[in-house]
Structure formats: structure tokens, C-alpha cells
Protein: Transportin-1
Amino acid sequence: MILYSEKKQEGLLLLCFVSIPFSSLPSVSFSRHAPSSHSSPSPLPFATSSPAMAAAAPLWQPQEEGLREICSLLDAHISPNSDQARIWHQLQHYTQFPDFNNYLVFLLARGEGKSFEVRQAAGLLLKNNLRATFSSMPPTSQQYIKSELLPCIGATNKAIRSTVGTVISVLFQIVRVAGWIELFQALHQCLDSNDLDHMEGAMDAIYKICEDVPEELDVDVPGLSERPINIFMPRLLQFFQSTHASLRKLALGCINQYIVVMPAALYMSMDQYLQGLFNLAKDPSADVRKLVCSAWVQLIEVRPSILEPHLKNVTELMLQANKDSDDEVALEACEFWSAYCDVSMPPEGLREFLPRLIPTLLSNMVYADDDESLTDAEEDESFPDRDQDLKPRFHASRLHGSETGEDDDDDDAVNVWNLRKCSAAGLDVLSNVFGDSILPTLMPLIQQNLARTDDDAWKEREAAVLSIGAIAEGCITGLYPHLPQIVAFLIPLLDDKFPLIRSITCWTLSRYSKFIVQSLEHPNGREQFDKIILGLLRRILDTNKRVQEAACSAFATLEEESAEELVPHLGIILQHLMCAYGKYQRRNLRILYDALGTLADAVGAELNQVKYLDIFMPPLITKWQQLANSDKDLFALLECFTSIAQALGPGFSQFAEPVFQRCISLIQSQQLAKVDPAAAGALYDKEFIVCALDLLSGLAEGLGAGIESLVAQSSLRDLLLQCCMDEAADVRQSALALLGDLSRVCPIHLHPRLQEFLNVAAKQLNPQCVKDAVSVANNACWAIGELAIKIGKEISPVVISVVSCLVPILKSPEGLNKSLVENSAITLGRLSWVCPDIVAPHMDHFMQAWCNALCMIRDDFEKEDAFHGLCAMVAANPTGAVGSLAYICQACASWKEIKSEGLHNEVCQILNGYKQMLGVGGWEQCISTLEPAVVQRLGSTSQRVSGKNYHHRRGRESYWSVQWTFGFVCDPTATPRQHTAKLKRGTEQGPKHKLGPLESLAPLEGLGIASPPSCPSCGSRPMALMTTKAVKRIKKKYQASD
Structure:
């Protein structure tokens, strides 16, 4: 528990240390009068430590003049009109003196006669200093600070006690239990003192330690007979019955910190703890009731088995707490329902409570009279955006192969979690668990609220519309027959007189976007679709900023589902969006950019028409030119241009050069700002680099080879290499995505630094890098694969190191990003395709895990590349893959359809080759281990291969299609030419080996050939295999003819 005033002052102190550059500050002296800007800092007369003092730290005493100087400094610090820059400079000067922290702790602990604010400021400054310098302080100062803090645990002033607790917690994190045994002796004495100040001070310190490093109290410590938590736990549980609410609150807060780590002390006391929670459920203190609810929520999240015997009673208590008069208690209780469903507890345990729970949730979804959102929602578009309206913006770096994430369905302008939102989320979760069975309870309540048409009941109507949106996913089956009527009812609400009803209707309609699009072919479906589009477009031009935001977000969701269905409406959509573009303020302008970018993603090249380009490109270019390189409003515009460039494709070429050059300029200026902000004229912000890199990727994807001339005339290659090595993970992530995109369209411009790019990308795949930044590793993996198919054997220097990193990913995919596992499988295939001779000898280390990963990849050209690699590697080392044949069969059967005829033949030839190699018995034994569906698909594949010719891709040889010759060496004196039997193509096929004259003969038993033909001359069985080419070489050597 940190007091609000303490937080506020701490923030100011952190501002002093972080926000103001040291070099920008003038030198000042410090006194009670305004310092001269030309004076230099006067040294503070700190006490010098004599030998005697060094031997006895508690003898240290401050000098009065130094004390006055520091008090004056802190006085100025807490003044609202102070010059923080000068204070910071003076503080920096004082920290050079070894006794400065002694002065601070003296003021905190013994500053009688000084204001509590000054003493508290001294303590907070001390806390920050200890984090940075305690370990390097002289032992005498360390001991002095420790000894001065302990007597203050029970200070009479609550603010001082709280600050002391904060300092103690920070110091404890540095020295741990063994470094401060006296602390626990002091805390124990305070807890046993029966003095409220001492007990509360000790509990506050313990709570902060438990909050920061709970595990540190559950360790064995030399000098202590018990672990600290074992000593404190019984006392904490006793405080559940204290007559003082502050002690009950602190004790409960301490123990709650241990639910996740669950030390033996708590586990052994669980019955007493649970009984205490039941007893405190009706506590008169709302803070205590809130912590009780928090405990139940944590227990069901991480220790559900503990709650199972008590689940019915706990659920009843939480249902009552969900109706608590204190909103914070009700909010904490409301979290229980989502937690219950998330841990897959038996739903039947909750079903009997639904008739009472659902009305409670619906009631809590109604706006409270004092909800700040009500005031915010009344602001029309003429109100300028405030700084707090502009949420911090974080650009998502490009991730190759990532799935589209879920949209944020937050319907409130201010992103604050509250009871209304939590109740809606709870209803959403319940609908997904119980489905249509909640409708008989819920729908009458919704209908009842919607039927209240008087103005005083608008909040209830709004909550009803919200609840319809909340159950859109979970109850879709039961709602489906009625959805046309529901949508028809919602459309007029887009024009309701109350702005919050208009905004929530936008959101609710967006939740049914998929159904709305699916219903286009139904009677009146297209008419409804058109009405929704026009209704949302009207709301995009609403005068209320809250409605504008909701309408833009809803329209973007509808765009994603509608795709080409929007094409007939493109003109009117663009006109409305550009009209909004001229009237929106900064916050909603960002959302409008997203809607425009989503439109481009949805309709693609359909946007590439002059009549459309003339509507939206001139305003965007004008804004593009107006915004400075340091303006953060550029972020959303860069993202928008990325989608537009990808959609227009070559059609974007007329705008490409200035956009490309601006991106290069942004990257250059930010890299300069990183080392010299003054020269760059701006502070460093990596978001500019990330957005610029992603737009360049969009240009590469859209323009294709058309970007080559721009890359050739720029410094992009060198800038990109720098970005690939950047310390910021999201910069590396976007840089590696661009590396992969450039590899596809203009790899020639990467060649001068190709090995550097390869080494940097390969480095991102080592296990620690994967753990630290999985998305960076994902893009590095993909980029290496793209480079491999373009540069061929030039990638060989890094093949082994890359494969050695990919194999652990494939062998242990649990918990890893799905995209990383898929890209690892694809890249391994591409490396095998271009360098089969390097990879094939190691296949037994990864073939089974690799095949499992290949089974999970959807059919596309990247999967084709991977299977070309599989075929090439098996051809290079067929015996090495025999042990994994069942896995290879499963991977081959994972295709729905191999569209490439060449790959299709190649896969089938592998299977037929193994069938011939193993013989009927061996093949049947392998097939018997497979699922019937897999066998069926394999059989179909084998049949389709007959009569088809293989078409080589990228000039590579199909090793399994080589004509083979059995070489019979029946007579030791005979030459191979005397006994050869040429086989018909496709009758007997086998693996290719590196064959030379004579010594190219390979033992048959090592190849697993089950039934080779007999020698036509002597009837004996053959001893070896040769390719036709090998036989010709042998014939040539012996100057023999057919």
C-alpha cells in the first residue's frame, strides 16, 4: 500500500532522474533564495568520517549546514512551481558525496521539526539512490542506513511509516534475508507489540516485501531456525480476526501474494486460510471484501482443486459480492465467472446459479450515474482532443505467417477496465460455455429493457444492446433463426438520439458481421447489407467523437468480412471516409486510417482505378507532406500507406518514389537521433524505424520487381543491415521481414553483403534468441528460406548452423509460436532443396519431427518448396529415411491436393520407390502402422502417378526417375558388361548413389532391394545396382560395345 501522495512525489523524483538530460542543466548553488544562474554548485559540508566513526557507524552525525541545504532542496522539490531541472542538477552534485544517503535517512528517521512532506521526499529519494548505489556504499554507511530504518517501522505518522516500508522493501531486495537478519527480528517484535502503529508499520513492510519478492521469505537462512514465512504465517492468519481493518487488510494482502507460489506454510494452513476467507466475506471494510474476492479468483485460476470441495459455497458468496454496493468489490467478484470458465471447471457446478447470475451481470452492464464515460461521450467534434485522449500507440511489427489477431472489442472511449466491461466479458464467456441454454433467462430481460422507450431508461436500452453483442459468438446457433429480425431492429438504433446507444449499436452490428455477409443470398439479405453500410457511413460522419470512433471500428470489422462484396459501394465508401478525413481530430483520425487500410486489404486491386485514386490519394499525400519526420501522427499514416501499396500493386508505382525516399529519410534520421539527437533535430523513437521498414516491405510486396530501381539508387542495403543488428527486437523483426521481401523481388542488390545478412539472420535462431524474441526468430527463419531459393548453393556456409537451430524448434514445438514452427519446417525444406548433399547425412536427427510439422502446414507454394526439399533429401540418402517412412507417408498424405504436377510425380515416385525397395511384405508392414484415412490418400496418390511425366522445377533432377541397371557379378573374372539386364523405366526404380567405374557397385542388402531380377545369362541373383550412366562409363573404360 503506497499512499497517493507518496506515489505522486515518487513520480516527481523519477522525473528528476529520468526526464531531464544532465547536459541541459545550468550550474546552481542551493540556498533558500533563488539561485543565480551563473553561480556554481557549492559543496555541501558533509560530515567527514573519522576512524572512530568508521568503527562505529551509529556515531555518525550530520552537520547542521548540510542538513539545512538538503532540507531547502527538498522543500523546493515538493513545491509545485519549482525548477525541476535545477533541483535535479543539484541532486546530482550531492550524490557525489558518500554521506549524502546518510543525510537522507537521518531526515526520514529523525527529522523532527521538519515537515512530513520533506521527510517523505527524503525517503523516496533515498529509495531511488539505494537501488543504484547501495552495493557500492561503504559498509559503515550501509549499516547506518539499516540501523536508522528499523526504529521508524512504527513511526506515529502514517505517511512516514509507509515510506519507511517502501525503503525497507527496496533494500531487502538488494540484501535479502541473510543480509539483514535484524530486520526480521524487528518486524517480529513490532507484530508482538500490540501497539497499532508498530503492528501496522511492520505489516506494511511485510506486505511490500511479499508483493515484490514473495519467494525470498520462503528460503532457509543460516541463523534462523525457521524460514521467515513459516514464522510470519501464523501471525498473519491471527490478524484476520483483528479489530483493526488496516491489519486485516494487510494480513490478507500478504497471504494472497503466496497463492501462486504456494509455500508449504500456506499449504499446511489452507483450511485455516479458507475459513478466514469465509469469515471475512462480509467484512465491514470494502478493501477487505475486495481482497477476499481476489483470493477466490486467484485460487480458482491457479489452485482449482483446493476450491472444488467448497465450490458451491464460494460461488454463492461471489454471486452476492457481485451485487456489492462498492463497485470495486463487485468488479473483483465479477472476474470470478471468467476465471471459472477459463480453467475448465465442470460447467454443471455453475449452471444452477445462471438464473440469478445472468440478471446480475445485465444489471451491472448499465452505466453507473457517475461513470466518467458519460461525460466524455457528450463531447462533440468541436471539442479539441486532450493529451490524455491520445492513447499510447504501439505499432505491431511485421510477422511473417502470423494469423490475424482478434480485434479489441472495447466499446468505451476511455480504456479503463470497469464493472460494466467485466460484466459484458463475463456474459460473453458464459455464452461460449453454456451456449443457447442461457437464452431463456437472458432474452426476456433484453426484451424488457428494449421495450422501455422513455428517455430515462436509455441506459437500460444501451445495456440490452451491449448484451446482444456480447452473446454474438456463444449463442449464434439459437439466435440464427432470429438474426434477420435482430439486425432489422438494430439498424434504426444507429440513428438514436442518445450517442452512447448509437455507438454501442455500431459495435453490436460489427459482432454479427460474418452473419450479415453470409446472409447476402437470403431474402432481403442484400438489402439489409446495404442499409448497414449506409448506416455505418452516416455514423462515421456523426458529430459525436465517441460515435465516430465506434462507427469507424465497426466498419473496419465489416470490411474484413465483406471483402469483394464492398466493390459496388467503393465510390460512396471512399467519399464518406474522405469527408470524415477532413473533419476528424487526431485521435479518431488514427482509427480512420485503420478503416481505410482495412478497406485496401479487403478489396485489393479493385482500388486501383483512377476514379477511386482521385478520391483518396490527394488528401493522404497532402497530409503526408504536412507531417514532419518527428510527428507521431505519421505512424498511422505509414501503416495506412503500407496496406494501400500492397493493394494497388504496380498501380502504386506513380506514388512510390517519394514514399520510398521518405522511408529512407526516416530511418536515417532516427539512426542519427540515436547517437546525436541534437544533430538529428529530434529525439530517438524506434517506432519511426519500424513503421518505415514495414512500409518498405509493403512497397516490395506491391511493386514486386518494380522496386529494384529504387533500391539500386538508395542506401537501403546498408541501412537494412544496421536495422537487422539493432538492439530493439521489434526493429530487428521488421528489418528481417523486409530482408525476406527483398530476397524475393531483388536479391541481386543484397549480394554485396549477402554473407553478413545470412550470419545476422542465423544468429537470431540460437535458442536464447528464440526464447527472448520469438517473433524476430520467426522472421529470420523465413528470410533465410526466401534467400535460399534465390541464391541456391551460396547459402551453404550457414546451412549446418541454421539446421542445428531449426531442429530443436521442430523437436519441441510445445509452447512455441505456431508460425515459427511452420516457418522452421519450410526453411529446412528449402535448405534441403538447394543443398541436399549437406543436409541429407543428418536427416535421422530430425526427419520424424520435421514430417510432423509438415503435416500441420496448409497447402500453398511454401509447402511445395518444403516437399521439394524432402524429395531431394530422400533421393540423396534413401536408406537414411527408411526408419521414418511412416512419418514421410503421413506428411505426403497431409496434402488436400498437390497442384504442381512436377511435385506430385516426385512425391509419388518416392512412395513407389520405397514400395519396390521394401517389397510387398515390408511395404505392408509400414502401411499397417498408418491410419486408414492416411492409407487411402496414399493409395490414391500412387494410382494418379501412372502415365504422368515429371516436369523438373528450377532445373533440378528427379533422382527417383533415373533409369537403373542391375549389375550382375556372377563370375569373378567377368566384367560388368558381360552380365547386365536393362530394366524398363518404372519397373524397378531405386535411389541414386554417387557411382564411379567399378567401385560404384553398391551391395544390394544395404539398399533393402527385396526381389531383384535374375541374371539372364546364368540365372544367378544380382549383387549390386548401377545407374545406366555408370554402366556407360564402365563400358567406355573397357572399350566395350553393346
The first helix runs from residue 4 to 18. Confidence is low (pLDDT under 50) at residues 1-58, 403-414, 944-1042. The chain has 54 helices and four strands. The radius of gyration is 37 Å.
